[in-house]
Amino acid sequence: MDEFDAPQDRFVQTVTVLIIITFVVLILIFASTGNNRGLGATTVIGLLVLVTSYLFAPHGYAIDESEVLIRRKIGSVKIPIKRIESLRYDPAACSLWGVRTFGVSGLFGYFGRFYTHDLGHHIRYATDRDKAIVIEADKTFVISPDDPAQFIQIVKARMEANR
Question: How many domains does the chain have?
Answer without folding.
Answer: 1
